[in-house]
Structure formats: structure tokens, C-alpha cells
Amino acid sequence: MGGGAPVLAPAPDKAEEITSSGTTQQGSETAPGGAYASVCSDGGSVYVVFGQNPIASASTSYMVPAGGCRDFGPLKEGDKIAVIDV
């Protein structure tokens, strides 16, 4: 049986820092199709979601714990990220 887990590139194609708050914050970078994103929170825990016009919320998003990282993908062409504080 073939297959395997995707591996992130040694250097990112794009990087973006977003300051989270109590309201959803949308990033400006768009993903190429098939891309993967590594999301890290260097402050408190955040909820994150991806889409063409994403709105982060507790009920529709994934949690990234304080000080933690999570990988997401593959993303669709034009996807953006949105974050909100937990």
C-alpha cells in the first residue's frame, strides 16, 4: 500500500502574522491550490478556519492551543485564513 503524510517545505512560500482578538480577523494572503498551512499561536489559544471569505468562530473552526502549532491542508486555490481568540 502506498501513500504517506504530506511534508511542509523547508521554507514557506508565504508567511503572514495576524493579531487575533475577540472578533474574527481575516488574513490577506491567498493560497495556491494544494498548499498546506502551518498555524502557530504565540499568545493565547485561537480558533482558525480557511475559505474564500472565512469567518472564524468556536462552532466552525479548529482550535490552535496557546504556544502550539497545527498543520492544515490541502487548501483550495484562493483560500484565506481567519482567526479569533478562544
Task: Briefly characterize the structure.
By secondary structure, the chain is an all-beta fold. The protein has strands at 25-26, 37-40, 46-51, 62-64, 69-72, 80-85. The chain has a domain at 30-85.
Task: Reconstruct the topology from this structure.
Layout: E1 25-26, E2 37-40, E3 46-51, E4 62-64, E5 69-72, E6 80-85
Antiparallel strand pairs: 1-6, 2-5, 3-4, 3-6
Question: Which structural traits does this protein have?
Answer:
86 residues, mainly beta, 4-stranded antiparallel sheet, two-stranded antiparallel ribbon, 6 strands, 0% helix
**DSSP strand tally:** 6
Biggest sheet: strands, sense, closure? Answer: 4 strands, antiparallel
Question: CA-to-CA gap between the ends?
Answer: 40 Å
Summarize model confidence as the mean pLDDT. Answer: 91
Cα-atom Rg, whole angstroms?
13 Å
Query: What structural class do you assign from the helix and strand content?
Result: mainly beta
Strand content: 25-35%
Q: What is the N-to-C order of secondary-structure elements (H for helix, E for strand)?
A: EEEEEE
Number of helices: 0
Low-confidence stretches: none
Which percent bin holds the helix content?
A: under 10%
Give me the side-by-side strand order of the main sheet.
Answer: 1-6-3-4
The outline comes out as globular
